[in-house]
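[[Local backbone shapes]]
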Amino acid sequence: MRMKTYVLSAVVLLALTVNIAAQQQQARPAQAPKTVSLIFHETFKGRAPGAPAQIPLTTGHATNANLELKLYGPGAKAAPDHESGLLLNNAADEAKPDEMISYIWSGVTEGHWAVMLREKNNLMDLTGPAKLRWRLRPRSFHQLRPVVKLADGTMLAADYAEAGSTYWRETEVYFVDIPRWRVLEPNRLDEARDTAWRYNLDLSKVDEIGFTDLQRGAGHGAEGNSGLDWIEVHGKPVPRATSQSQR
């Protein structure tokens, strides 16, 4: 009888050990990629010959056929009766007058806005050495910051912003160095009722990535605006079909 009790106890202990090990394995976070590659580089379509130097930015202005360009917030789209919203400018680079560039400009936005890019075939794993590179020119109090939309639909703005600049500049930021994030309300593009900072954000499945300065523009002839020439993202693509099958 005592031998049966020992055997039963051993079986129960073994079962508990296996169960605990399985739970630990399941809870263990996915390993961040050690190397990353260019997921996309996006410039934006310039104006057609004979068109105005400034045209409303639309979802059709992405040059990469694998990308969807999305506009969020009340300030992003043009009003029907006057000039407003995000514009696509075609102008000379002040530091290189012989070079014409096509860039997104927020000077006549009348509310908060965000420009987001979605890779059609892949989610983005932005863990490990993943990074964002861009060429930009924020002015005055306007500061451009990265925005992500996760696979579950949550949109967040980074507690990292590029300060104002007289001339266009190229910079990069590693996502792992962004200390915290704040949830955004996608329609208003302001801080959501959830006011808790998000630390150690899981960026292994990012659906969209983009940028905002969380402000309206100051109008023509003023310094209060943001401009972005191009943007690129380095990380690890995660096929959408594979990601969905693992849910």
Observations:
- Residues 24-28 have pLDDT under 50 and may be disordered.
